[in-house]
Amino acid sequence: MAYDSLDFWRTTESPAGMAGLSTVWPSLRTSFPWMVTVAITLRVLVILAFHTYRFAPASDHYNFGYEMGRIGRALAQGKGFSNLYRGATGPTSWEPPLYPYLVGGVFKLFGIYSPLSAIVLLTINSIFSALTCVPIFLIARCCFGDKVAIASAWTWALYPWAIYWCTTWVWETSISTLLLTTLFWLALIVEERESFKTWIQSGLLWAAAVLSNASLISFL
């Protein structure tokens, strides 16, 4: 069963009847904006409460993004996609370009290896992680029905390990997860929609996914 874009921001119609929690909750628990807002709020609170944006300066801030951080620093300094390790090690193809360019842009705007850059990057990761609730819900609803979909999406929103990685690690994990789950959902509906637009969307998302993590092409 396919679901069109009209369903995207609200997965079920609001319940009719008298107002109150008993009538509002069924709508809230299946509302994508509500799921995503709760997930983002939890993740940002973890970043701020546990100071996960404070990376040790040892080894020239290597823990701040590892190879991603090194390439991002070179980009912010105008040295191109290079300098993977200490010093001027030259051009590199060690990582796909999408996330290093994101890191480089943040470094350029908010400072190289600065706490503010860390907060911004971890918050962006958290947004990607929170948005993953949406394709998880849609996949589960296509395959198993509304009850499993609701449980799956809320499990992801509240799952400690899903929260941990996006709030502590400056890496492409969150955006790659979002892209892969979205592509999986598109694969479930593309045949039923038989729409050229859906194939175009799928192709563009696959391109973004490979530019984020080349290993994702193994799922194609």
How would you describe what is shown here?
The protein has 220 residues and is mainly alpha-helical. The chain is built from 11 helices and no strands. The protein has helices spanning 21-28, 32-49, 58-61, 66-76, 98-110, 115-131, 133-144, 146-158, 160-168, 173-193, 196-212. Helix 2 (32-49) packs parallel to helix 8. The two termini are 22 Å apart.
Total number of strands: 0
Beta content comes to: under 5%
Helix/strand order, N-terminal first: HHHHHHHHHHH
Structural class: mainly alpha
Q: What average pLDDT do the residues reach?
A: 89
Basic shape: flat
Count helical runs. Answer: 11
Can you summarize the main beta sheet? none
- N- to C-terminal separation? 22 Å
User: Low-confidence segments, ≥5 residues, pLDDT <50?
Assistant: 12-18
Rounded to the nearest angstrom, the radius of gyration is: 20 Å
Helical amount: 55-70%
